[in-house]
């Protein structure tokens, strides 16, 4: 096998795993397939010692700090296929810049491929994503605190998110883009927290040149001035590799892992947003670090049989 570990994805999870495995003197290939999930965000917030750093700068630092570790190789490649082979796996892919084919072997695989957010197909959502349209109050609530905010969605999801967002602002309006499918109890809870509900269909979001939200324009021509809109967007896996390898996927579309971050395919691990649970850059980095330790221990057990 050419490498001890193939890490697929060079976001927070993949970079943290590469750092730890480099420090274990492991031969690692870090396959950097391109942009991270948060690339359109002005800052990564809540990352210890790096609060507010741009996503690109966080990754630049991650790559820079890998440099002393000579056993870690970084390649700009998108992995397209991973198949089992005696002693490990064979992975094939293509260079993201030159389309050059790649074929390598590794004893273990770590999937750190992240997710992608599926935004409503309404004018303005994609354009303002990461700035005026936000996914998480823990990441961006402080930046828009005390300002007029909207929360988009329907049913239980929007109720929970709106109640959460009301911690950051006393002026929150739920916008449902048509029937909100809210139970009488949900409406009561929202009212009790002074959260208004607007079920008028949305025509578009109006933003500034800096991609801040200015207002929500409804189909009836009315406008609602808002500084930001939060939503829980459905997600898709950035890569279908786990599924193609036959790994178990949860009912919510995440890659299932056991308590040791191993997928249902032996010797294939997963970390970061791709797995179930909270999604934050620091959590992804911590999971990458933990997966690396568990992989190193698994390799050590193989190398040092009883
Ligand atoms: C708009 C926005 C703002 C955010 N703001 C914050 C914030 O302020 N604070 C915070 O803590 N979190 C924030 N997050 C969440 C944070 O971005 C994620 O939790 C974090 O990026 C997860 O890291 P990851 O390594 O798991 O995935 P990612 O960072 O998405 O990295 C996955 C990488 O894998 C690569 N990849 C995928 N498939 C392949 C393949 N087949 N071959 C090779 N490479 C592949 C992708 O190109 C990508 O580079 C934000 C998210 C969004 C959407």
TrEMBL record:
Family matches, as Pfam families: Pyr_redox_2 (PF07992)
Report the InterPro entries cross-referenced here.
Answer: FAD/NAD-bd_sf, FAD/NAD-binding_dom, Ferredoxin-NADP_redctase_2
Listed A to Z, the keywords are:
Flavoprotein, Oxidoreductase
Matching SUPFAM superfamilies, A to Z?
Answer: FAD/NAD(P)-binding domain
Q: Where is the FAD/NAD(P)-binding domain?
A: 3-288
Q: Which PANTHER family match?
A: THIOREDOXIN REDUCTASE 1-RELATED-RELATED
**What is the name of this protein?**
NAD(P)/FAD-dependent oxidoreductase
Q: Which organism is it from?
A: Hymenobacter armeniacus
